[in-house]
Amino acid sequence: MEIVIADGGFGGLYAVMYLDKTLARSPRRHIEVTLFSRKNPRASKARKADGWICTRHLSSQSAIVN
Q1: What pLDDT, on the 0 to 100 scale, is given for residue 19?
Q2: Which residues are CB-contacts of 24 (< 8 A; sequence separation ≥ 6)?
Q3: For the sheet containing 32-37, what is the strand order?
Q4: In angstroms, how far is the first alpha carbon of the chain from the final one?
Q5: Residue 42 sits in which domain range?
Q6: Average pLDDT in the 16-32 region?
Q7: Which of 47, 45, 63 lies closest to 7, judged by CA?
Q8: d(C-alpha 63, C-alpha 60), whole Å
Q9: What is the domain count for the chain?
């Protein structure tokens, strides 16, 4: 079984991390959680922290967190 979260941004990222941790303790460990997102969560962190952003923090491709 696979759980897919599409275009979640920060909410999706935290949902994946929560589900991953919760399902790791579950007897049903064969469940995979995947996040597809066009956004780079690190980009807004860099902007908030420094007030600027480098092009290396941006991605035109979809990020897959698994």
Answers
A1: 84
A2: none
A3: 2-6, 32-37, 63-65
A4: 14
A5: 2-65
A6: 79
A7: 63
A8: 9
A9: 1
